Amino acid sequence: MVTIPFHQTVRALTPVFTVGIYRVVFASIYETATYISLIPVILGVMLASYGDLSATMLGFFVTLLGTLLAAVKTVATNRLQTAGLHLSALELLYRMSPIACVQSLFIAYLCGELEHFEPQSLTIAGLLILLVNGSIAFGLNVASFEANKRSGALTMTIAANIKQVLTVVLSVILWDIPIRCMNACGIALTLLGGALYGRAELMGIRRNAMDPENGMEEGVKA
What we know:
Oligomer: single chain
Low-confidence stretches: none
């Protein structure tokens, strides 16, 4: 339906959807410097993952919907922990895990995966692998929720974009995968944008500390 470069390019727009959600749903805006820092972050990921951008119309809409839902999930996770219910990371995971399990089983049924599942084929080694995988996923989700609570939804989406280019860097270092000049420029541009975003957030925190009455939550101004 879509190529990997196309998918990565569209997913790079997650920060834009996050900013839009805060603006439309919560009537909140960010500092001008924060908006400016998003430009190199997004463009950098697009250049770093540039390649075959072919996609079907259905693939395009599904990828775009997935990007929107990723932003909604990040914002909702933050709000559930910082406003209203004030859930902890563990409690949020406790309430979401059963729903995720049912969803996964339902999708597995629709895709026909359950028909090929044979419980008797599971070995001790296989069960240990599942246990380790589940433990890692548990730790990852707790760390992700806690980081979202402390740093904010937009920061998490920026970090996700930087993670994409760092994955490319790691593949070059470990497996000596060649990249083009455009990809290298995209990596550098993304890292520069991340640094600019961090600087903008740090300046906002310092201003809030000096003027707490007019402070802004996670750099957002209502």
